[in-house]
Amino acid sequence: VLKERAKALAESAIERALVAAGYEGGELDRANLDARDVLRTRVRAARARRGIVSGQAVVFTGPGEPGLRPVERILAREGQVTVETLVTAVSPGTERAQWLRLPNAQPRFPYTPGYSGVGRVLAGGDATRPIGSLVAVARLPHTSVATVPVAWATPVPEGVEPAEAALVYLAIIAGYGVRRAGDIGGRRLCVVGAGTIGALALRMARLSAPGHTTVIATSRAREKAMLERGADAFRTAADADGVGAHIVIEATGDPQALRTAVAAAADGATIVLLGSSRGTTDAVPIAELQRRNLRMVGAHISCLATEAKRLDHDPFQDLAGAYIDALAGGSLRADDLVGDPADPRELGALYHRLADGTARAGYVDWTRIPRGERVRVGSVLAAPSLLPARARAVTAPVPDTTSAGSLRFAVIGCGDIGGSNAKAIAAAGNAELALSYDPVAELAASTAAKRGGRVAGSLDEAFDPSNVDAVLLSVPHDLHAPLVRRAAEAGLHVIVEKPLAVDLPSARSAIDAAAAAGVTLSVCFPFRYEPELRAARALVEAGALGEMRGASLVFHADKADAYWLGGYSGRASSDWRRKKDRSGGGVLLMNMTHYIDFMRSIGGLEPLRVTAVSRGDAGAEVEDAIAVTVEFAGGAIGSLVGSGSTRGRPENRFDLWGEHGSLCLEPDPAVFTTRAIDGVAPGRWCSLASEDRSSPRAVFVERFADAVLAGREPDVTVADAFAVQAFVDAAYRSMAKGGEPVTIEELDR
Amino acid sequence: MTFEELVATLGDTARPLEVVGDGPLAQRLRDRLDAAGGDAPATIVETTGTEAALRLALTRVAKLGTVVLAGPPPVEDPALDLYVDVHVRGLTIIGVEPPELHDEAPSR
């Protein structure tokens, strides 16, 4: 009773400490399990007066959820060996089946998969396994440290590839299948299945000098490798009749492969069931077994442990030694069975490739993790290293400006957004607000008063290159292209508040004018410089998402009726936003263009074909709500739904996803990836940095000025701006056609 | 393998050994082998050719044990989960062509 009470108290104390440290939900449950494992190990270590070694292990906490969890092991005592793992083998049969939760392969969660590996002796051992020596360890799951009986560790001579030696337990399994067949010397042998177990069964059998050997597989993909490494003949399953094998080793795991094995067997033959079949064999040919005096023998590796109890030697060691000796002596090769190395943090990606058939094999390379994170020897009093309660936020810095000097700007248009742009120019380190111009003189005056510079009395004055080097246009959309042309003619560089123009032809004319004049033109997409979006872009560039698969946006605004007559503030009265010929469009062009730019600039998504339908709810000529579907180059798909009058304004939702992960950019920016990327915990949602709140608009101006002063292309290129305009144009054409698809390519016609 | 060869072979098989079924063939085998009953026999000889008896034999035989299929051929080949029924327990299944009993004289 006292023991139980002490245990309950300890568990309660652990839980309270974890909650106080910020763990919650599923992370609290998992941290509880980790902490209890640590406590149990340390109690046992203290009793044994031994130290501990800490490391990491792959743990499945649910279907498709492998992750690295901290583990602790007691350092080896006499008769044991503690190993620092270098590589662990992946069983492409069983581990794939477990990943897919196939029949007979559904271990309870949490579990650590794996079979065997190779490592260096860290503690314990004996004369043949001294500290620092290389050993192949059977029954080693995917873990960076382990303490096992000495007998499980087979010395690996120099020159043997660790990844090949790591297959030792699979070789034991295969060798046991051969052993169950009885005496195979000189007898015709057939192996059904050319996977890892089938290949190893053939190669282990070759060590006992069988007669003619045949391999049967469902395809010829492995024919060359099997013939080069020991098979005398190769057949497909459809051609199994007449092999006439005295011994057939069925090594596929396919429950229906028994028929092939029976077809390949000679009368009186022995059929060894070596592959763990995943499901029911529809019709076991009992009558044929009887008529042809066939013998069927099960060969699960657990039976070798049963057999071992009756023997005066260790059959596991015998088989492991035979395999490693054969590798060292060159009589057996396994180079074709190891596959590519995988980072332990990315094991899920390897399982996924095994599941979809794009990989046939693979192994875990533990050296991909810094040694300090996978092997730490310490005392039972050292602080345990649990996973942190929350993943750290990911950050990405803004590139430094490289140029000297300052760019003089005129702000053209001093309404809502003009005021923000003037503020951004004033805040930029390499820009100066020289002039403000607005047809409503008091707007220009208030801007100059707040942000510096003086009021330009006319457009001519504002576009005079003796006064300014660049203009920033914050005017109704129909004025964008004409004013870009005017600036270009004056030799001034130009920033246009998005969009580039009122429509696609105008956008093209603006670009042409800037190019002809040799001035720099860019469009203000400042939110690219939000810290979360900088981090998102860096993560995508680092491969967090892999090949892009999709993007989705749900955008809501709740624009008051007054918006259509004076913008959000009413600072400048005008109804240009209502008019199609002045604004060019509604919520898609006015608001959602930022997200279209994100899809391209962060996700690299280039639209190919666009379909759109819309509603006009605000009494304006332009759309107030729109639903767009898009197909991107490379096969990704997207959906954008936006409304400018959603009452109550629900939260926006914006996601990008790919083969390896997902990015949520609204409402709470975070990344989830299965890839091993510095600063990100694979398999966990990690927040994207939000602490750096410097004005993205000021950063945009600073980066533009730096590009002009340094003579390089601006971050937002005319191609970027045109691509966004083309997307919008395609959507509007689709709307006009009643929702028919419009390709980007046809826009040029 | 003939019936007499089967009897000779089973005579050398490790005990305990169990015969499944209550028909004439089972009775005759029991008489000839004096097979002892008991839990988890190392060898079971199935003589009925029925799916139910086959499943019973596979369930009752010891790990690493042997099931001899000596009954008449089944009317229909049964569906089995060979992982559970044979592989994981390391069983040996021996197919034996049964004797044609109607051609034989009564045993006594």
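The longest strand of chain A covers residues 80-89.
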